[in-house]
């Protein structure tokens, strides 16, 4: 087993000093695989599409034809291909076993929409990937079942969940973990989902656009990191959160980093306060947007502005606020995105992000 201790801590603007950042020990026998993993084949590039007709804000009904069009255009614009099938071939072959990382922490009110997931599955199967080679995966069964994904999917597609025990180790790889002591907790290890280490050859990350009281936002990085490891909520207690450094550290662990080759962010509906849940309906808004890329840092950097702009419209404190109270119990750490950039996971500088924006009827 290869063991290395994570000691070099990058300097991050607006972040805690280095002596406040915990010492992480990463244990993994897996080595980097190729160039497809984060930041992927298209570092620093993001395709953003917006449609006024993809979701009805009053009923929350989603138009499947517009979803299909948005995903097709998003993939072709990202890859430069004319045909959607050729775009998907940049990432997948018929032999791949594909994990689709859902975001169901706020289900059923806010989650990776089943029509988006179904369209992703359709495109994978069009390449010759069989239904039983596709896994929708998430941590907790009680959240996933509320969305009723099987009703939208072909027979044979797998729903892979670890269970409902928030602290249980069953389903996680005992040989692949991050060890860190945040607050003197008894269990200081966070193990990687065994499906990631043993089953999947590729992963598609399908996050939402959400505010988060500890990390500032939930986007690509937090969804793939916290959603693939166990024992992660321990990172924030009282008013203190270590999400600043924990999210990027988890996302950098192999083989999760190498296998996560594509992110499709579902921003048809979003949450500007109280995330990852929809605690009150007034905290929801409807960007009607989807973003495509392989660089989770670049996508999350743009997400910061989307959430923060809505918070400004609502006269709420910025996600960069260093206070606690009425708007949340923690000092938020949106700097986790820049921290992840310093780990080589993507491009944070907006001046260097190549953004292509389109409107879809």
SSE arrangement:
Elements lengths: L2 E4 L17 E4 L17 E7 L12 H16 L4 H5 L9 E4 L12 H13 L7 E7 H4 L13 E6 L8 E8 L9 E5 H5 L3 E4 L2 E5 L3 E3 L1 H7 L9 E2 L2 E2 L1 H9 L4 H4 E12 L12 E2 L3 E5 L2 H18 L22 H7 L11 E7 L1
Parallel strand pairs: 3-17, 4-5, 4-9, 5-6, 9-14, 10-14
Antiparallel strand pairs: 1-2, 2-7, 3-16, 7-8, 10-11, 12-13, 14-15, 14-16
Helix pairs in contact: 1-3, 6-7, 7-10
Quick summary of this structure?
The protein is α/β, with parallel strands linked by helices. It has one domain (3-360).
Oligomer: single chain
Distance between the termini: 53 Å
Question: Largest beta sheet, briefly?
Answer: 11 strands, mixed
- Sequence stretches where pLDDT stays below 50 over 5 or more residues: 1-18
Please count the beta strands (DSSP E, at least 2 residues each): 17
Net shape:
globular
> Which bin fits the share of residues in helices?
10-25%
How many helical elements?
A: 10
Structural class: alpha/beta
> Any idea how many domains?
1
Radius of gyration: 19 Å
Mean pLDDT: 93
Q: Which percent band covers the strand fraction? A: 15-25%
Order of helices and strands: EEEHHEHEHEEEHEEEHEEHHEEEHHE
């Amino acid at each position: 087993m290869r063991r290395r201790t994570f000691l070099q801590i990058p300097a991050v603007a607006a972040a805690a000093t280095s002596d406040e950042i915990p010492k992480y020990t990463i244990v993994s026998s897996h080595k980097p695989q190729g160039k497809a993993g984060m930041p992927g084949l298209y570092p620093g590039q993001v395709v953003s599409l917006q449609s006024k007709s993809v979701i009805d804000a009053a009923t929350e009904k989603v138009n499947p034809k517009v979803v299909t069009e948005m995903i097709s255009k998003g993939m072709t614009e990202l890859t430069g291909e004319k045909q959607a099938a050729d775009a998907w071939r940049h990432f997948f072959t018929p032999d791949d076993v594909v994990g689709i990382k859902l975001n169901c922490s706020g289900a059923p009110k806010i989650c990776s929409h089943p029509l988006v997931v179904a369209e992703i599955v359709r495109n994978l199967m069009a390449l010759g990937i069989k239904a039983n080679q596709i896994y929708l995966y998430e941590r907790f069964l009680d959240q996933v079942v509320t969305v009723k994904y099987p009703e939208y999917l072909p027979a044979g597609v797998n729903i892979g969940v670890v269970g409902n025990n928030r602290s249980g180790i069953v389903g996680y790889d005992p040989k692949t973990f991050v060890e860190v002591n945040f607050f003197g907790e008894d269990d200081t290890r966070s193990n990687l989902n065994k499906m990631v280490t043993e089953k999947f050859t590729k992963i598609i990350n399908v996050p939402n656009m959400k505010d988060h009281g500890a990390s500032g936002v939930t986007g690509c990085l937090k969804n793939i990191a916290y959603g693939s490891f166990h024992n992660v909520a321990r990172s924030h207690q009282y008013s203190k959160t270590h999400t600043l450094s924990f999210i990027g550290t988890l996302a950098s662990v192999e083989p999760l980093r190498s296998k996560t080759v594509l992110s499709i962010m579902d921003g048809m509906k979003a949450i500007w306060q109280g995330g990852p849940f929809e605690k009150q309906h007034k905290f929801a808004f409807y960007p009607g947007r989807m973003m495509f890329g392989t660089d989770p840092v670049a996508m999350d950097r743009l997400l910061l502005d989307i959430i923060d702009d809505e918070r400004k419209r609502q006269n709420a404190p910025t996600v960069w606020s260093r206070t606690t109270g009425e708007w949340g119990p923690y000092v938020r750490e949106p700097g986790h995105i820049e921290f992840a950039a310093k780990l080589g996971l993507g491009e944070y500088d907006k001046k260097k992000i190549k953004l292509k924006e389109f409107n879809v009827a």
